[in-house]
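Progress note, sequence design subtask.
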């Protein structure tokens, strides 16, 4: 099979030099599948490939020792340089964490975009734009970058602009304004936050440069009141205590258009979020902002406390905590981790799929919608009981990282009750790099727990081009994938399969309840028909003049549509086919071909009519069993349609 728009690196391996290549995809066509092994007795939870990836990423960057902890504020100098946490929060409210993700630190300059958003909400675009611009300064965070003539700060991400934004927060008193700022941050984080008093006092006592900036802003008329009040609030907002998880959820709230994905709280209007993210994109990383956009491509903000947050609109928020800083004042590990996540998972804002979210169109179990293989009663009973351990999901649209994350998370959460999962991608139009790597990581994680993931993808096109994984089972159609899953369930939960089963006429469904005399009369009216594998039994358009009772082997009923043969059903011993000859003697609507060597008994229309004349009770018994079979087929079809129409 040709493959898709997904790279060749496993999700579990960070994208630094020396990445391993994945092994070849296995694809399955119209051939029998090997027996499943090692499925009995497991109930382990599948490890999320995202958790595994972040753990590997954390482990790889843990030895990084460059950079220095900020020391211009005494409490910051006490930070442990070995502290290192990563958190990724989705717009559905799920947070993945690794390392020191719950270690507290002060938000520092990462407060700037949030206070800017609050100022916009309080004052509106026009009033805020009159005081602070939106142009990149290309200078350090504490530079005095003011527009010539007006003295207006170039953007709200440098200290001058941030102090100006803080001065625009509404409130009847200094305490009220502080309360509004801290509460606003807490709504983004989804929990109440507090100011670290020790850090605030140190900021206040050592913030001479910021105090100079504030007084200069007052001199230009940008600040209209005593700058000390705005400066005090600025020192307090920078001293709000957060952890890595908080920051990831704050970023995810921005990614979610201003709605906290955990609480559902509309924290900031979408139009204001757009402005905040725009300024973060161009100005958030100070004098390295241009390089950041090229390498990472996500709106971001850093803080000298060691935090970095990044936002992928519509999908997720990323936060990294590691105190050692580079010369720009950005966390060394934080920058590198964000860069690698963006590269590995294709999260650059400028490289997005045509839609931001894919959807699960339908979800059902194999118990609800089995394959078209008609199985013996013993196997059918096993599948009726164990079929809920195989879940099928029909996906559609463009499969981006956030959409795949949601699908993978659902599979991981229910994996203790699942043996096999099927993802039908025939309605998926594109798989981006991050989603593809998640898919591979999920398959490998499930295989490690003795489970399996089956992928359905058309053999035409390049949907899976570049996807190269030994653990990936790819099928050309959903029916064959479902049958393969059933075989695995039977191997795990059923009795050992019999080899080449052959039944007697007395065991056939059409002869249920017959006494010896009726069996003898029916046998005398029929002729045996042996067949070899691949041999046609009859073709579409042939006269419908007989019914066939299968005693041994397997046959497949096929319908040709647009030159392609489509399987309607595969029959096993005990089933019959061609019975419509008894109701309508017109041409055959389908073809029947032998899958394996075997034998059936042929009951011609003429013989059936003769039975009716000589032994009406026998013909009536045959018709009753035929009707019972039709009711079974209709009931099965009704359940399947109900599952498909009402699928989760």
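Output:
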């Amino acid at each position: 099979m040709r493959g898709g728009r997904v790279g060749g690196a496993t999700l579990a391996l960070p994208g630094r030099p020396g990445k391993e290549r994945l092994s070849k995809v296995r694809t399955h066509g119209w051939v029998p599948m090997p027996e499943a092994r090692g499925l009995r007795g497991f109930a382990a939870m599948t490890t999320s490939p995202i958790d595994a990836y972040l753990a590997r990423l954390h482990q790889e960057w843990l030895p990084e020792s460059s950079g220095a902890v900020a020391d211009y504020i005494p409490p910051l100098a006490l930070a442990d340089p070995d502290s290192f946490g990563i958190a990724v929060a989705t717009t559905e409210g799920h947070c993945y964490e690794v390392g020191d993700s719950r270690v507290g630190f002060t938000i520092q300059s990462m407060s700037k975009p949030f206070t800017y958003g609050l100022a916009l909400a309080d004052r509106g675009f026009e009033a805020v734009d009159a005081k602070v611009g939106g142009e990149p300064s290309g200078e350090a965070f504490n530079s005095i970058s003011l527009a010539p003539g007006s003295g207006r700060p170039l953007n709200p991400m440098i200290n001058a602009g941030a102090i100006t934004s803080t001065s625009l927060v509404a409130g009847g008193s200094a305490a009220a304004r502080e309360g509004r700022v801290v509460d606003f941050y807490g709504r983004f984080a989804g929990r109440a936050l507090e100011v670290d008093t020790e850090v605030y006092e140190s900021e206040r006592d050592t913030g001479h440069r910021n105090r100079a900036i504030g007084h200069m802003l007052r001199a230009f008329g940008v600040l209209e009141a005593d700058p000390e009040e705005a400066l005090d609030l600025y020192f307090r907002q920078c001293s709000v205590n957060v952890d890595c998880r908080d920051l990831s959820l704050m970023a995810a709230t921005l990614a979610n258009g201003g709605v906290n994905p955990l609480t559902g709280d509309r924290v900031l209007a979408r139009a204001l979020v757009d402005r905040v993210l725009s300024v973060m994109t161009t100005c958030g990383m100070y004098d390295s902002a241009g390089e950041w956009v090229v390498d990472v491509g996500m709106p971001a903000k850093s803080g000298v406390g060691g935090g970095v947050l990044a936002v992928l609109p519509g999908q997720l928020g990323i936060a990294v905590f590691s105190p050692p800083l580079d010369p720009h004042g950005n966390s060394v590990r934080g920058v590198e981790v964000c860069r690698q996540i963006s590269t590995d998972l294709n999260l650059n804002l400028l490289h997005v799929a045509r839609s931001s979210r894919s959807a699960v169109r339908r979800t059902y179990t194999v118990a609800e919608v089995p394959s078209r293989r008609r199985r013996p009663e013993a196997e059918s009973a096993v599948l009726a009981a164990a079929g809920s351990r195989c879940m099928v999901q029909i996906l559609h649209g463009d499969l981006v990282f956030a959409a795949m994350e949601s699908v993978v998370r659902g599979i991981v959460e229910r994996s203790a009750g699942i043996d096999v999962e099927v993802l039908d991608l025939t309605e998926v139009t594109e798989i981006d790099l991050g989603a593809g790597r998640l898919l591979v990581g999920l398959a490998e994680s499930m295989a490690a727990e003795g489970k399996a993931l089956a992928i359905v993808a058309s053999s035409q096109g390049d949907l899976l081009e570049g996807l190269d994984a030994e653990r990936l089972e790819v099928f050309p159609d959903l029916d064959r994938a479902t049958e393969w899953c059933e075989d695995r369930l039977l191997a795990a939960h059923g009795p050992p399969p019999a080899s080449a089963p052959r039944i007697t006429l007395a065991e056939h469904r059409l002869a249920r309840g017959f006494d010896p005399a009726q069996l003898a009369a029916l046998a005398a009216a029929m002729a045996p028909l042996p067949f070899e594998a691949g041999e046609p039994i009859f073709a579409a358009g042939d006269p419908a003049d007989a019914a066939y009772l299968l005693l041994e082997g397997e046959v497949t009923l096929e319908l040709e549509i647009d030159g392609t043969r489509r399987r309607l059903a595969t029959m096993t011993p005990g089933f019959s086919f061609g019975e419509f000859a008894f109701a309508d003697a017109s041409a055959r609507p389908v073809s029947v071909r032998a899958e394996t060597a075997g034998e059936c008994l042929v009951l011609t229309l003429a013989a059936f009519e003769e039975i009716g004349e000589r032994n009406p009770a026998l013909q009536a018994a045959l018709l009753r069993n035929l009707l019972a079979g039709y009711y079974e087929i209709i009931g099965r079809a009704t359940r399947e349609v109900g599952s498909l129409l009402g699928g989760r």
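The chain has three domains: 26-48+353-493, 68-325, 505-645. Work on this subtask will continue into the next period as scheduled.
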